Amino acid sequence: MSEQVPFVGLTGGLGAGKSTALAALRELGAETISSDAVVHELYDEPQLRDAVVARFGAEVAPGGVVDRGALAQRAFATTEDRAWLEQQLWPLVGARVAQWLQAARSRRPAPRAAVVEVPLLFEAGLEGIYDATIAVVADERLRNERAGARGHEVVAERDARQLSQQEKARRATFVVRNDGTVEELQAQLSAVLDKLGV
Q1: Of 12, 6, 14, which Cα lies nearest the Cα of 32?
Q2: 103-137 burial string, b = 16+ CB within 10 Å, else e?
Q3: What is the pLDDT of residue 3?
Q4: Predicted confidence band at 73 (pLDDT cuts at 50, 70, 90)?
């Protein structure tokens, strides 16, 4: 592990509780960012919004604001459209996260870790850029309840694009279970930060 603040990728399946884990890590002294939040910001910027409208039509951005649900239905409909969207997004997200990491590592006192929530971390082949990775896993029934409650568009298609929980867990440096209380999750994450040596 490098002397500098560890750079950690956080992932997990739909409804596993990545956002809850990210919030817990922030409370434990990590600097955190969600790649999903970065994507939200990017959709508000003319460069990406205009590219998406040119590709999928004005109905994905009524009133000039990208409707992520409508975009998901169009972009996830074909492999080609999804690949196109990912080619637009990933370099922009990568550049934004790199800026964030530089700022996080220059903070004093230094955070315990710099953690990025990346739903498709392993699927995108990004694990090599991190010092460590954490997979959040949860009971399948719980995951389905959580995903359904949040009204995720095209849940089946999105989940089909992801590796199984078991595969994410196998590839990750650390695995945390999110079947219990937030306090139990926080205790597991605290132990992970301890193992990172910061």
Answers
A1: 6
A2: ebbeeeeebbbbbbbbbbbbeeebbebbbbbbbbb
A3: 63
A4: confident
CA distances from 106 to 28, 31, 99, 176 (A): 19, 11, 11, 28
Q: Report the C-alpha gap between 137 and 14 in whole angstroms.
A: 10
Per-residue tokens: 154 = 């095209």
DSSP code, position 110? P
Express each pLDDT in 166-176 by its tens digit: 899 999 999 99
Q: Residues with Cβ < 8 Å from 11, sequence gap 6 or more?
A: 18, 117, 118, 119, 120, 121, 122, 133, 134, 135, 136, 168, 172
pTM, two decimal places: 0.84
Q: What is the pLDDT of residues 120-136, one digit of tens each?
A: 888 888 889 999 999 99
Say if CB 55 and CB 84 are below 8 A apart: yes
Beta-carbon count within 10 A of 91 CB: 10
Cis peptide before 109 (omega within 30 of 0): yes
Mean pLDDT along residues 61-65: 90
